Amino acid sequence: MSHHIVEARDLRYAYPDGTPALCGVSFRIHHGEAVGVVGANGAGKSTLLLQLNGLLEPASGEVRIGDVALSRNTRAQVHRSVGFVFQDPDDQLFMPTVFEDVAFGPLNLGLSEDEVRARVTSALETVGCPQLAGRAPYHLSGGEKRAVAIAGVLAMTPSILVLDEPSAGLDPAARRRLIGLLGSFTHTRIIATHDLDLVLEVCSRVLVMHQGELRADGEPRRIFSDVTLLARCGLEPPLGWQAALPVPR
Amino acid sequence: MHMADALLSPAVGATMWVASGALLAFSARQLRERGEDHLVPLMGVLGAFVFAAQMINFAIPATGSSGHLGGGLLLAILLGPHAAFIVIASVLTVQALFFADGGLLALGANIFNLGVFPCFIAYPLVYRLVAGAAGSPGRIVAGSVAAAVVGLQLGSLAVVCQTVASGISSLPFGSFLLLMQPIHLAIGVVEGLATAAVVLFVRRARPDLLAPPPVPAAAAAPEPGMLRPLVAGLAVAAVAAGGVLSWFASSQPDGLEWSIERVAGEEGLPEAGTGVHGALAALQDRLSFLPDYGLPADAQPEVPEAAADAAWPVVDPGTSLAGVVGGAITLCMVWLVTLLMRRRR
Amino acid sequence: MSHIDAALRDLRSLESLARRDTPLAQVDPRAKLVATLAFIVAVVSFDRYTVAALLPFAAYPAVLAAMAEVPWRLLVRKLLIAAPFAVMVGLFNPLLDSAPQLVLGSIPVSGGWLSFASILLRFALTVSAALVLVATTGLYPLCVALGRLGVPWVFTNQLLFLFRYAFVLGGEASRMATARLLRANGRPLRLASYGPLVGHLLLRSLERAQRVHQAMVARGFDGRLRSHRQLRWTARDSVFVLGWCGFFLLARSVNLPQWLGEVAGA
Fold it and tell me: Which of A181, B20, C79, C223 would bridge B111 by S-S if both were Cys, CB 3.0 to 4.6 A apart?
């Protein structure tokens, strides 16, 4: 299905104060691919992700989602197929209850009440949290917040999921559940993260960003073996690959 | 200073509700017409900011006391009057509901006192004039302090008027005013300085947030847009005040007459000073300050006689006693009912 | 700063009380709102010297609190915290109004003390009724009710957003204040550092507002918040409102304690 393709063509963007954030980034992501985007802080990961959903407009270059070139006019249309999970779930969980929050997107799509209810139930079941429906967001743990934020995006039935730092701030068990969840999706997934082990487990491809440029694009195991590349981009090999630390006595 | 339900008469409370409610509806319509959807989260988050910032205190040198931001003026500077008014009203509502600050009937009065004055009067008429569009730090400080002082002086004046018009407190207008205005002068200066400190920081860090005028669409026609709610607000306030006074006068004639009688009675004390009445009145003056004193045994039989004097409301000791006994029975019954309900569950 | 955390804990505790499944949680929020407003108007409509006749009104907050299992201690603590202004203003009454109003046994009581007692009682009644309303209803159903009663949605949404982000920004404010305190070496916070501290909090709030807006737009927000929440008014709600309003009318027109006392005395 061609409309699942995500394509960036020579994207350029600078912050309002003139600092360049993206300096000509191009890639093409196919249907069902799980792609990790890694890089040091300030490498341009978050800026790139915001471009993919039209939340930031590029200074030049183009984003295409399937056959549609992203623009002010097509933005609403693109939001239906590209689901965006924000880094801080508190930014995304703004409604009074979990149910209302997950229903926010479907209600904006103008769906019937029954349809909205069905979508909310199914999205919450997918992320394993149907019991949270009546809870308020400030009563949730970090892992629950993350799961509900993902459910809120799934309820829009997007074909492409964009996630910004999904494992940040999670305890090991919640992170493990998240990895299982991300691995189970058939959506096209674009995941910006510092968690290279998560990339190894979930992604079939990785993009390495450094200073607003795309430095590498390929299979995660191959790229993470290139220690020089990683060091140049301010990264380290996945923790799972590093020698076990000596236990202090 | 939050107005409290306990000090308000229903007439005054309802009038202030109508006035604040009308201004809320008006402000909401203004915002809807502007149709800026980023304002929804912006106002919500800024309301939470004010809520949180009110709990951060700073020390006031050499006084041993501390101050904090009220927020109304700062919100008006950041959002313009209409949005700021709605935000401050929401902060007061949450405080009334969750922290019992004021109460639900007094909420109308509190929104009026702490919202209308800073947003629709102090900001457009004082801050904008003194600080100017792109004010220097000095003018921002002067504008903030002047605007905060004006806003809080008007607010505390309104508290005094509402309290006196309600007639629950015995404080006369003049003394209450003398009590409230100086305190609020100090609070106003502190509020102004705190506002200026935050505005100056934002001006250095993110000048784009302050000038040109913060809400772009409103900037197109700020002056006429500013004037209309002001005129509307003042008109509502005038009608409200008129309504309160006339209602007060018609529904509380006893209270008014009684207080006049009381004043006359006190003036007449020296003449009656030799009689039982005078002696008891003097005694009562002391007793009212020291209620635990028992009455001298020989005065006891005379009390009903004195109390029945025409100058004071007729008091029948039997009636009072029945009230006390009945009150105790009532409370016991309430207590029993609730106890049963809790047990049953 | 611990009092920020305490305030947030208070917000959370009242709201979580409302989320429990009690018989009162089933009552339409509009019914509870209307009954509470009628209660407050009835209580404050009494003459300034009324004390005894106010007592039966304690039944409303007490029964509701009992039905919803709202802890007494929570109510009392909140009452004590909120008391200062009413008490301060009320305290002038005994000083200014010393004319005797009634006689208890043999002790004459001045109008000032009576009206002071009346103010305290009004305060306790109105404030506990408002607290019980929140503790049995919760802010969200209350906002839905307000919306249905004609309050502009701009305002009800504002309440919900404020409440939601009070926890997030309150947490940030608390952490910033704690971080300052840890390095302050006992120095108080002065205006010179207050500006940057609160200014930072403001900038972070503005950035957050921008991200929240992005998150809303990304899920199809077009300036209108839609709600699926429906309210259903049942016979039980009518009984609730009519029953309580009938009681308020009775207690307002007949001095029940007086009557009881006379019956007991006779």
Answer: B20
Reference A120, options C141, C218, C211, C228; nearest CA is C228
User: In the β-sheet with A68-69, what is the strand arrangement from edge to edge?
Assistant: A20-29, A6-14, A60-65, A68-69
Query: What's the Cα-to-Cα distance from C29 to each of C33, C237, C238, rounded to whole Å?
Result: 6, 9, 12
Q: Which of A201, A205, A207, A197 is nearest to A242 (CA)?
A: A197
Q: Which residues of A touch C142 (CB under 8 A)?
A: none
Reduced to 3 DSSP states, what percent helix, strand and coil does chain A have, rounded to the nearest 5?
40, 25, 35
Residue B227: is its pLDDT beyond 80?
Answer: no
Would you call B41 an interface residue with chain A, using a CB distance cutoff of 8 Å? yes
Q: Chain centroid to CA C180: how far?
A: 32
Average pLDDT over residues B286-295: 35
Instruction: Give the pair of three-digit tokens for residue A176.
Output: 């493990």
What CA–CA distance (Å, rounded) separates C138 from A244?
51
pLDDT at A7: 92
Q: Can you list the alpha helix ranges (DSSP code H) found in C27-138?
A: 29-44, 59-67, 72-82, 84-90, 92-96, 111-137
Residue with tokens 């913060």: B214
In a 10 Å sphere around its CB, with 0-12 CB exposed, 13-18 middle and 19+ buried, how is residue B122 labelled?
Answer: buried
Q: How confident is the prediction for chain B on average, in pLDDT?
A: 72
Q: What DSSP element (H or E) covers A14?
A: strand A6-14
Please list, in sequence order, all residues whose beta carbon lies within 8 angstroms of the beta carbon of residue B288, skipping any fewer than 6 positions away.
C94, C98, C100, C110, C112, C113
Query: Alpha carbon of B112 to those of A43, B68, B108, B115: distances in Å?
Result: 50, 20, 6, 5
Tell me how far apart the alpha carbons of residues B53 and B72 are, in angstroms, rounded to a whole number: 12
Q: Does the pLDDT value for residue C184 go beyond 90?
A: no
pLDDT in tens, A163-201: 999 998 899 999 999 999 999 999 999 999 999 999 999
> How confident is the model at residue A247, as a pLDDT?
60
φ, ψ dihedrals at C14, nearest 5°: -65, -40
Let me know the angle formed at the C-alpha of A214 by A211 and A216, rounded to the nearest 5 degrees.
Answer: 120
**pLDDT tens per residue across span C125-157:** 988 999 999 999 989 889 989 988 888 888 998
From B145, B94, B140, B90, select the one nearest B118 (Cα to Cα).
B145
Total beta-carbon pairs less than 8 A apart between chain B and chain C: 410
Within 10 angstroms of residue A214's Cβ, the number of other Cβ atoms is 22
Q: How far is CA B58 from CA A103, A222, B54, C193, in A?
A: 42, 56, 10, 9
Confidence of residue A8 (pLDDT cuts 50, 70, 90): very high
Return d(Cα C156, Cα C225) in angstroms, integer.
11
Residue at token pair 């109308």:
B108
Using CA atoms, how far apart are residues B49 and A126, in angstroms rounded to an integer? 35
Average pLDDT over residues B53-77: 84
Residue contact B87–C264, C-beta within 8 A? no
H helices then E strands: how many in chain C?
13, 2
ipTM: 0.90
- Please identify which residue in the block is written with the tokens 């929440």: C229
Q: CA of B125: how far to CAs of A181, B143, B150, B221, C141, in Å?
A: 57, 10, 10, 16, 39
Amino acid at C205: S
Residue A190's pLDDT is 95
Q: Find, among B157, B69, B171, the residue nearest to B113 by Cα.
A: B157
Residue C112 touches chain B, beta carbons under 8 Å: yes
For residue A16, list chain B residues with Cβ-Cβ distance below 8 A. Answer: 208
C219, C228, C230, best to mutate vs chain A, most A CBs in 10 Å: C219
Residue numbers in A near C215 (CB within 8 A): 84, 86, 91-92, 94
Spell out which residues of chain C touch residue B169, defining contact as CB-CB under 8 Å: 89-90, 92-93, 115, 119
